[in-house]
């Protein structure tokens, strides 16, 4: 492993910060999502209702605990910490012309403290927390004006923190919204609320197009402002395998992978590939795309590909096989993979899939890659000795790191870093639960927001501390 490899962890503002209405912060889309569970989807409400519980309002109160938490990350030897800047802290409604200084000051303090503890920030600009006002008054990213609002926000924070933050990401898991059968993804990605009669795919592609234009404008601004800055896209990596060597299975998997790769293709290549143009033509999808938009997308492409990796899915063209969902990668014709085990939340565990994806992305883009999320959600139990022995999490992370190292050292992938998702327990995005824990640091708070909020180390804390200290040699 290279000496400057960025080992660390990853969190998102809406899942950790809390303080949802402090210091001038406006409502975000995460603030109107209730708690769900593995069987009950989170509800998106029309504003905040007094009869509902919203776990992101309090989360783990990182807003008031950030120094304690950053100290723990430093003790774990973190080289970097991926976070997001809550858009609605900086522009409470999203369409203002002047930012909220109190919101900026919070991140001034956070980044300064991270620098003091020698932890490099990796910052996501839009991580499922756009201002809810923009949904109510503009329809989210179905509206072209979102380009203006987002780029204004991005320019303010990039200019302010350019000397503290080198690595930036634009839209978190931008490809998740392609799963239009589940409305939570279009809402959290783009603030889209589907109405009766809406052509969901057309709306999704339109939102994505506006996001591509906005992202390209941000890349251009960052490069002109400071040549040291690197801006990447961010996608959810959930590769699809063919169930058999039947050519129909192979083609189905290829088509579904293209549907996922499309979002990084445009941002890395700077143009719309022919396969998507043919798909739009065949499906009757007509979008608002101008010549200036295409010039903007072509002018500036990303410096690296950031991605999350948790699972793979298997697809079949055989109508007789039982079709199943597979966590956040559920899609048409997904079937059981008998070679893989699953987590308690039904997500396949596939370390070799990470190596496969790294190689696919290397061959496709010839760009640096950054694993900005990889983690294991599980119910943790405090043992009689008062400790949390999370061997399953250690084994999961160990096996994925082994495959990452093989992709780098044997296959030639260029990987900037590896950040464990939810390095501290946080509110689950998909279910809104606390009991689905990812952290190497335990936070004493339950699904109803009750607890002492005390932080304590799990066994994985000491294990990861050694991994980083040895630059991945001791696993």
From TrEMBL:
Its transmembrane ranges are: none
Q: Which Pfam family is an annotated match for this chain, by its short name? A: Glyco_hydro_1
Q: Which UniProt keywords apply?
A: Glycosidase, Hydrolase
Q: Give the GO molecular function terms.
A: beta-glucosidase activity
Signal sequence segment: none
Which GO BP annotation is one of this protein's? Answer: carbohydrate catabolic process
Which SUPFAM superfamilies does the record cross-reference, listed alphabetically?
(Trans)glycosidases (SSF51445)
- CC annotations in GO: cytosol
The protein's matches in NCBIfam families, at most eight in alphabetical order, are given as: PRK09589.1
In the record, the note on similarity to other proteins reads: Belongs to the glycosyl hydrolase 1 family.
User: What name does this protein carry?
Assistant: 6-phospho-beta-glucosidase
Q: Which organism is it from?
A: Xylocopilactobacillus apis
User: Which gene is annotated as encoding this protein in its UniProt record?
Assistant: bglA_1
